[in-house]
Specification:
The chain is mainly beta. The protein is built from no helices and 9 strands.
Length: 88
């Protein structure tokens, strides 16, 4: 499966909504990608203020990547108010 956005090099991803993507699955194949796949991101890459909502595999980053706590992850399948929103 392909990523909605794949970063190779450096980039800034800010205030984006990633919703209902079926990007790859982390255990299927090395050719699968997360919805936002930043495993090949270079230094200077910034991922901030994004909402990841109902994605199969929302985000992939390399070890040691410093991900901003401003990103939010949710999997509210039934739109229930009690479903917690998880911040990084």
């Amino acid at each position: 499966m392909y990523a909605a956005l794949r970063i190779v090099g450096s980039a800034s991803v800010d205030s984006c909504l990633f919703r209902d993507n079926i990007g790859g699955h982390p255990t299927r194949s090395d050719n699968d990608y997360a919805t936002l796949d930043a495993r090949d991101a270079q230094s200077g890459t910034v991922i901030t203020n994004n909402l990841f909502y109902r994605n199969l595999w929302p985000l992939a980053v390399s070890c040691g990547f410093n991900l901003s706590a401003s990103n939010t992850f949710s999997c509210d399948e039934d739109n229930h108010a009690a479903t917690p929103v998880v911040t990084n």
